[in-house]
Amino acid sequence: MPFLGQDWRSPGQSWVKTEDGWKKTTKDENETNNNVSERKSYCKEEHDKENLILSINYDVAAKKRKKDLLNNNTKIPYFHKDKWIYVHKGSTKERHGYCTLGEAFNRLDFCSAIKDTRRFNYVVRLLELIAKSQLPSLSGVAQKNYMNILERVVQKVLDDQQNVRPIKELLQTLYASLCSLVQDMGKSVLVGNINIWVHRMENILQWLQQLDNIQINRPTNTGMTFLDLPDSLQLNIMHRLADGRDLVSLGQVCPDLSVLAEDRLLWKRLCQYHFADRQIRKRLMVSDKGLLEWKKMYFKLCRCYPHKEQYSDTLQFCTHCHILFWKDTDHPCTANNPESCCKPVSPQGFINLFKF
Predict the structure, then answer these.
(1) CB-CB neighbours of 84 under 10 Å
(2) Which is nearest to 304 in space by CA: 276, 284, 277, 283?
(3) How far, in Å, are 272, 294, 307 from residue 291 at the CA level?
(4) What does the pLDDT look like over 189-206, one tens digit per residue?
(5) Average confidence (pLDDT) over 92-99
(6) 267 close to 281: Cβ distance less than 8 angstroms
(7) Fewest CB atoms within 10 Å of the CB: 71, 134, 209, 222?
(8) Which of 302, 308, 245, 242 has the alpha carbon at shortest distance from 270?
(9) Is pTM, for the whole model, over 0.70?
(10) Using CA atoms, how far apart are residues 297 and 284, in angstroms rounded to an integer?
(11) What is the DSSP letter of 307?
Protein backbone atom coordinates (compact mmCIF):
# COMPACT_ATOMS: atom_id res chain seq x y z
CA MET A 1 0.00 0.00 0.00
CA PRO A 2 1.29 3.48 -0.84
CA PHE A 3 -0.25 4.97 2.32
CA LEU A 4 -1.47 4.01 5.75
CA GLY A 5 -4.89 4.73 7.18
CA GLN A 6 -8.30 5.32 5.62
CA ASP A 7 -8.49 5.49 1.79
CA TRP A 8 -9.29 9.16 1.14
CA ARG A 9 -9.57 8.96 -2.68
CA SER A 10 -12.54 10.75 -4.29
CA PRO A 11 -15.00 8.82 -6.48
CA GLY A 12 -13.47 7.94 -9.84
CA GLN A 13 -9.88 8.31 -8.64
CA SER A 14 -7.34 5.56 -8.42
CA TRP A 15 -3.68 5.06 -7.50
CA VAL A 16 -1.26 4.49 -10.37
CA LYS A 17 2.40 3.52 -10.01
CA THR A 18 4.72 5.78 -12.04
CA GLU A 19 8.44 6.31 -12.29
CA ASP A 20 8.19 9.08 -9.69
CA GLY A 21 6.10 6.99 -7.28
CA TRP A 22 2.34 6.42 -6.65
CA LYS A 23 0.00 9.12 -7.93
CA LYS A 24 -3.79 9.77 -7.91
CA THR A 25 -5.44 9.86 -11.31
CA THR A 26 -9.00 10.12 -12.60
CA LYS A 27 -10.68 7.76 -15.07
CA ASP A 28 -9.88 9.94 -18.10
CA GLU A 29 -6.28 10.20 -17.07
CA ASN A 30 -6.20 6.44 -16.58
CA GLU A 31 -7.34 5.86 -20.17
CA THR A 32 -4.71 8.28 -21.47
CA ASN A 33 -2.01 6.68 -19.33
CA ASN A 34 -3.09 3.23 -20.47
CA ASN A 35 -2.68 4.24 -24.10
CA VAL A 36 0.74 5.70 -23.35
CA SER A 37 1.74 2.64 -21.39
CA GLU A 38 0.59 0.38 -24.23
CA ARG A 39 2.71 2.34 -26.68
CA LYS A 40 5.68 2.18 -24.30
CA SER A 41 5.23 -1.54 -23.76
CA TYR A 42 5.08 -2.09 -27.51
CA CYS A 43 8.26 -0.07 -28.04
CA LYS A 44 9.89 -1.93 -25.19
CA GLU A 45 8.95 -5.28 -26.74
CA GLU A 46 10.44 -4.20 -30.08
CA HIS A 47 13.56 -2.96 -28.28
CA ASP A 48 13.83 -6.24 -26.40
CA LYS A 49 13.52 -8.15 -29.65
CA GLU A 50 16.35 -6.12 -31.16
CA ASN A 51 18.50 -6.70 -28.10
CA LEU A 52 17.71 -10.40 -28.25
CA ILE A 53 18.75 -10.60 -31.90
CA LEU A 54 21.95 -8.64 -31.17
CA SER A 55 22.77 -10.87 -28.21
CA ILE A 56 22.23 -13.98 -30.33
CA ASN A 57 24.51 -12.60 -33.03
CA TYR A 58 27.08 -11.69 -30.38
CA ASP A 59 26.93 -15.19 -28.91
CA VAL A 60 27.39 -16.72 -32.36
CA ALA A 61 30.34 -14.45 -33.08
CA ALA A 62 31.85 -15.22 -29.68
CA LYS A 63 31.50 -18.97 -30.26
CA LYS A 64 33.07 -18.64 -33.70
CA ARG A 65 35.93 -16.57 -32.28
CA LYS A 66 36.44 -19.14 -29.56
CA LYS A 67 36.44 -21.93 -32.13
CA ASP A 68 38.98 -20.04 -34.26
CA LEU A 69 41.20 -19.58 -31.24
CA LEU A 70 40.94 -23.28 -30.47
CA ASN A 71 41.81 -24.25 -34.02
CA ASN A 72 44.56 -21.62 -34.20
CA ASN A 73 42.88 -19.99 -37.21
CA THR A 74 42.83 -16.40 -35.99
CA LYS A 75 44.35 -14.04 -38.51
CA ILE A 76 45.69 -11.56 -35.97
CA PRO A 77 46.74 -13.28 -32.72
CA TYR A 78 46.87 -11.11 -29.63
CA PHE A 79 50.26 -10.50 -28.04
CA HIS A 80 50.92 -8.98 -24.65
CA LYS A 81 53.33 -6.08 -24.56
CA ASP A 82 54.22 -5.65 -20.89
CA LYS A 83 57.66 -4.14 -20.42
CA TRP A 84 58.06 -5.64 -16.96
CA ILE A 85 56.32 -8.11 -14.65
CA TYR A 86 56.44 -8.78 -10.93
CA VAL A 87 57.78 -12.26 -10.15
CA HIS A 88 56.16 -13.42 -6.91
CA LYS A 89 56.67 -17.00 -5.80
CA GLY A 90 54.11 -17.14 -3.02
CA SER A 91 50.96 -15.59 -1.60
CA THR A 92 51.26 -12.50 0.58
CA LYS A 93 48.81 -10.03 2.09
CA GLU A 94 49.28 -7.79 -0.93
CA ARG A 95 49.34 -10.45 -3.64
CA HIS A 96 47.52 -13.73 -4.04
CA GLY A 97 49.04 -16.68 -5.87
CA TYR A 98 52.33 -16.76 -7.72
CA CYS A 99 53.78 -16.03 -11.15
CA THR A 100 54.30 -19.02 -13.44
CA LEU A 101 56.54 -19.53 -16.45
CA GLY A 102 53.52 -19.50 -18.74
CA GLU A 103 52.24 -16.22 -17.29
CA ALA A 104 55.64 -14.56 -17.69
CA PHE A 105 55.96 -15.87 -21.24
CA ASN A 106 52.49 -14.51 -22.07
CA ARG A 107 52.85 -11.07 -20.54
CA LEU A 108 56.39 -10.04 -21.53
CA ASP A 109 56.82 -8.35 -24.88
CA PHE A 110 58.51 -11.10 -26.90
CA CYS A 111 56.72 -10.03 -30.08
CA SER A 112 58.78 -6.83 -30.32
CA ALA A 113 61.90 -8.60 -29.06
CA ILE A 114 62.14 -10.85 -32.12
CA LYS A 115 62.20 -7.76 -34.33
CA ASP A 116 65.25 -6.42 -32.46
CA THR A 117 68.50 -7.92 -33.74
CA ARG A 118 70.05 -7.56 -30.28
CA ARG A 119 67.39 -9.77 -28.67
CA PHE A 120 66.65 -12.19 -31.50
CA ASN A 121 69.20 -14.86 -30.49
CA TYR A 122 68.13 -14.52 -26.85
CA VAL A 123 64.48 -15.24 -27.68
CA VAL A 124 65.42 -18.13 -30.00
CA ARG A 125 67.50 -19.74 -27.25
CA LEU A 126 64.61 -19.34 -24.79
CA LEU A 127 62.20 -20.95 -27.26
CA GLU A 128 64.64 -23.84 -27.67
CA LEU A 129 64.92 -24.44 -23.92
CA ILE A 130 61.14 -24.39 -23.53
CA ALA A 131 60.79 -26.84 -26.44
CA LYS A 132 63.21 -29.27 -24.82
CA SER A 133 61.61 -29.64 -21.40
CA GLN A 134 59.24 -26.86 -20.37
CA LEU A 135 56.45 -27.05 -22.95
CA PRO A 136 54.14 -29.23 -20.80
CA SER A 137 54.45 -26.76 -17.90
CA LEU A 138 52.91 -23.95 -19.97
CA SER A 139 49.21 -23.21 -19.85
CA GLY A 140 47.02 -23.67 -22.90
CA VAL A 141 47.13 -19.94 -23.69
CA ALA A 142 50.91 -19.88 -23.24
CA GLN A 143 51.34 -22.89 -25.53
CA LYS A 144 49.28 -21.19 -28.22
CA ASN A 145 51.24 -17.96 -27.72
CA TYR A 146 54.46 -19.98 -28.04
CA MET A 147 53.40 -21.27 -31.46
CA ASN A 148 52.33 -17.79 -32.60
CA ILE A 149 55.69 -16.27 -31.63
CA LEU A 150 57.49 -19.17 -33.31
CA GLU A 151 55.52 -18.50 -36.49
CA ARG A 152 56.64 -14.89 -36.45
CA VAL A 153 60.26 -15.95 -35.93
CA VAL A 154 60.10 -18.25 -38.95
CA GLN A 155 58.47 -15.55 -41.05
CA LYS A 156 61.21 -13.07 -40.09
CA VAL A 157 63.91 -15.56 -41.11
CA LEU A 158 62.20 -16.20 -44.43
CA ASP A 159 61.94 -12.46 -45.11
CA ASP A 160 65.45 -11.51 -43.96
CA GLN A 161 67.17 -14.73 -45.17
CA GLN A 162 69.33 -14.72 -42.04
CA ASN A 163 69.77 -17.07 -39.05
CA VAL A 164 68.44 -20.03 -41.03
CA ARG A 165 70.51 -22.71 -39.27
CA PRO A 166 69.53 -21.92 -35.63
CA ILE A 167 65.84 -21.75 -36.54
CA LYS A 168 66.01 -25.10 -38.32
CA GLU A 169 67.64 -26.61 -35.23
CA LEU A 170 64.91 -25.06 -33.05
CA LEU A 171 62.14 -26.51 -35.22
CA GLN A 172 63.77 -29.95 -35.28
CA THR A 173 64.09 -29.90 -31.48
CA LEU A 174 60.46 -28.85 -31.05
CA TYR A 175 59.21 -31.49 -33.49
CA ALA A 176 61.15 -34.25 -31.70
CA SER A 177 59.74 -33.12 -28.34
CA LEU A 178 56.17 -33.01 -29.68
CA CYS A 179 56.51 -36.49 -31.16
CA SER A 180 57.20 -37.88 -27.69
CA LEU A 181 54.64 -35.67 -25.93
CA VAL A 182 51.76 -36.42 -28.32
CA GLN A 183 52.11 -40.10 -27.47
CA ASP A 184 51.30 -39.23 -23.84
CA MET A 185 48.19 -37.14 -24.57
CA GLY A 186 46.11 -39.42 -22.34
CA LYS A 187 48.28 -38.35 -19.41
CA SER A 188 47.34 -34.66 -19.86
CA VAL A 189 50.87 -33.74 -20.91
CA LEU A 190 49.72 -31.16 -23.46
CA VAL A 191 46.67 -28.91 -23.28
CA GLY A 192 44.09 -29.21 -26.04
CA ASN A 193 42.81 -31.70 -28.56
CA ILE A 194 45.35 -34.02 -30.14
CA ASN A 195 44.21 -32.92 -33.61
CA ILE A 196 45.35 -29.38 -32.82
CA TRP A 197 48.86 -30.59 -31.99
CA VAL A 198 48.98 -32.80 -35.05
CA HIS A 199 48.07 -29.74 -37.12
CA ARG A 200 50.84 -27.75 -35.41
CA MET A 201 53.35 -30.52 -36.10
CA GLU A 202 52.35 -30.39 -39.76
CA ASN A 203 53.01 -26.63 -39.70
CA ILE A 204 56.48 -27.27 -38.25
CA LEU A 205 57.28 -29.69 -41.09
CA GLN A 206 56.01 -27.12 -43.58
CA TRP A 207 58.25 -24.44 -42.04
CA LEU A 208 61.24 -26.76 -42.22
CA GLN A 209 60.56 -27.38 -45.88
CA GLN A 210 60.33 -23.65 -46.54
CA LEU A 211 63.66 -23.08 -44.80
CA ASP A 212 65.25 -25.90 -46.82
CA ASN A 213 64.03 -24.33 -50.04
CA ILE A 214 65.17 -20.82 -49.17
CA GLN A 215 67.40 -19.22 -51.78
CA ILE A 216 69.66 -16.30 -50.96
CA ASN A 217 69.00 -13.48 -53.38
CA ARG A 218 72.07 -12.13 -55.09
CA PRO A 219 72.64 -8.37 -54.79
CA THR A 220 71.47 -6.38 -57.79
CA ASN A 221 74.42 -4.01 -57.86
CA THR A 222 77.52 -4.95 -59.82
CA GLY A 223 80.02 -3.11 -57.66
CA MET A 224 82.76 -4.48 -55.44
CA THR A 225 82.12 -7.92 -53.93
CA PHE A 226 83.58 -9.72 -50.94
CA LEU A 227 86.20 -11.42 -53.11
CA ASP A 228 87.39 -8.06 -54.40
CA LEU A 229 88.41 -6.89 -50.92
CA PRO A 230 91.99 -7.20 -49.67
CA ASP A 231 92.88 -10.31 -47.68
CA SER A 232 93.22 -8.29 -44.47
CA LEU A 233 89.66 -6.96 -44.77
CA GLN A 234 88.30 -10.38 -45.67
CA LEU A 235 89.98 -11.85 -42.61
CA ASN A 236 88.68 -9.02 -40.46
CA ILE A 237 85.11 -9.77 -41.61
CA MET A 238 85.59 -13.49 -40.97
CA HIS A 239 86.54 -12.68 -37.38
CA ARG A 240 82.97 -11.40 -36.91
CA LEU A 241 81.51 -14.86 -37.56
CA ALA A 242 80.58 -16.61 -34.32
CA ASP A 243 79.95 -20.11 -35.69
CA GLY A 244 82.73 -22.34 -36.95
CA ARG A 245 80.35 -24.03 -39.40
CA ASP A 246 79.91 -20.69 -41.16
CA LEU A 247 83.66 -20.44 -41.55
CA VAL A 248 83.80 -23.92 -43.08
CA SER A 249 81.01 -23.04 -45.51
CA LEU A 250 82.75 -19.79 -46.44
CA GLY A 251 86.01 -21.64 -47.09
CA GLN A 252 84.27 -23.85 -49.65
CA VAL A 253 83.41 -20.91 -51.92
CA CYS A 254 86.82 -20.61 -53.56
CA PRO A 255 90.47 -21.65 -52.96
CA ASP A 256 91.51 -18.19 -51.73
CA LEU A 257 88.86 -18.15 -49.01
CA SER A 258 89.73 -21.74 -48.13
CA VAL A 259 93.25 -20.61 -47.23
CA LEU A 260 91.93 -17.73 -45.13
CA ALA A 261 89.43 -19.99 -43.34
CA GLU A 262 92.33 -22.11 -42.04
CA ASP A 263 93.90 -19.18 -40.20
CA ARG A 264 94.99 -20.40 -36.76
CA LEU A 265 94.33 -17.07 -35.03
CA LEU A 266 90.77 -17.14 -36.38
CA TRP A 267 90.01 -20.51 -34.76
CA LYS A 268 91.87 -19.59 -31.59
CA ARG A 269 89.61 -16.59 -31.06
CA LEU A 270 86.57 -18.75 -31.70
CA CYS A 271 87.67 -21.19 -28.99
CA GLN A 272 88.35 -18.40 -26.52
CA TYR A 273 85.02 -16.73 -27.36
CA HIS A 274 82.83 -19.78 -26.77
CA PHE A 275 84.72 -21.75 -24.10
CA ALA A 276 86.48 -21.14 -20.81
CA ASP A 277 90.25 -21.50 -20.39
CA ARG A 278 89.76 -24.47 -18.09
CA GLN A 279 87.79 -26.29 -20.79
CA ILE A 280 90.39 -25.47 -23.45
CA ARG A 281 93.25 -26.79 -21.32
CA LYS A 282 91.48 -30.14 -20.94
CA ARG A 283 91.12 -30.59 -24.72
CA LEU A 284 94.53 -29.55 -26.05
CA MET A 285 95.53 -31.04 -29.39
CA VAL A 286 99.08 -30.63 -30.75
CA SER A 287 100.13 -31.19 -34.34
CA ASP A 288 103.29 -32.97 -35.49
CA LYS A 289 104.99 -29.58 -35.77
CA GLY A 290 104.26 -28.82 -32.12
CA LEU A 291 101.50 -26.31 -32.87
CA LEU A 292 98.03 -26.28 -31.33
CA GLU A 293 95.31 -27.53 -33.67
CA TRP A 294 92.77 -24.80 -32.89
CA LYS A 295 90.29 -25.84 -35.58
CA LYS A 296 90.14 -29.46 -34.41
CA MET A 297 90.03 -28.29 -30.79
CA TYR A 298 87.04 -26.07 -31.57
CA PHE A 299 84.88 -28.88 -32.96
CA LYS A 300 85.96 -31.22 -30.17
CA LEU A 301 85.02 -28.61 -27.58
CA CYS A 302 81.64 -28.19 -29.31
CA ARG A 303 80.98 -31.90 -28.83
CA CYS A 304 82.01 -31.87 -25.16
CA TYR A 305 80.73 -28.53 -23.81
CA PRO A 306 77.91 -26.11 -24.56
CA HIS A 307 78.79 -22.74 -26.00
CA LYS A 308 79.26 -19.81 -23.67
CA GLU A 309 76.07 -17.78 -23.93
CA GLN A 310 76.68 -14.15 -24.84
CA TYR A 311 73.90 -11.82 -25.95
CA SER A 312 73.76 -8.18 -26.93
CA ASP A 313 70.63 -7.58 -24.87
CA THR A 314 68.92 -9.72 -22.24
CA LEU A 315 66.15 -9.57 -19.69
CA GLN A 316 67.08 -8.01 -16.35
CA PHE A 317 65.93 -9.04 -12.87
CA CYS A 318 65.75 -6.60 -9.96
CA THR A 319 66.55 -8.45 -6.75
CA HIS A 320 65.08 -5.64 -4.66
CA CYS A 321 61.70 -5.34 -6.38
CA HIS A 322 61.52 -8.89 -7.81
CA ILE A 323 60.68 -7.41 -11.21
CA LEU A 324 61.66 -8.92 -14.56
CA PHE A 325 62.10 -6.37 -17.35
CA TRP A 326 63.92 -5.62 -20.59
CA LYS A 327 67.19 -3.77 -20.27
CA ASP A 328 66.20 -0.59 -22.14
CA THR A 329 62.94 -0.13 -20.21
CA ASP A 330 62.51 1.36 -16.76
CA HIS A 331 60.66 -0.30 -13.92
CA PRO A 332 59.23 1.19 -10.70
CA CYS A 333 62.25 0.41 -8.49
CA THR A 334 62.14 1.60 -4.88
CA ALA A 335 65.83 0.97 -4.12
CA ASN A 336 68.24 3.82 -3.48
CA ASN A 337 70.65 2.48 -6.09
CA PRO A 338 68.60 0.62 -8.71
CA GLU A 339 71.59 -0.26 -10.91
CA SER A 340 73.21 -2.34 -8.18
CA CYS A 341 70.05 -4.44 -7.74
CA CYS A 342 69.65 -5.38 -11.42
CA LYS A 343 71.41 -8.35 -12.96
CA PRO A 344 71.14 -9.94 -16.42
CA VAL A 345 69.09 -13.10 -16.78
CA SER A 346 70.19 -15.81 -19.19
CA PRO A 347 67.55 -17.93 -20.99
CA GLN A 348 68.19 -20.77 -18.55
CA GLY A 349 68.05 -18.31 -15.66
CA PHE A 350 64.68 -17.10 -16.93
CA ILE A 351 63.31 -20.64 -16.62
CA ASN A 352 64.96 -21.18 -13.22
CA LEU A 353 63.18 -18.11 -11.83
CA PHE A 354 59.89 -20.02 -11.96
CA LYS A 355 61.02 -23.29 -10.44
CA PHE A 356 59.54 -23.62 -6.97
Answers:
(1) 21
(2) 283
(3) 17, 9, 24
(4) 677 777 888 888 999 999
(5) 58
(6) no
(7) 222
(8) 242
(9) no
(10) 7
(11) P
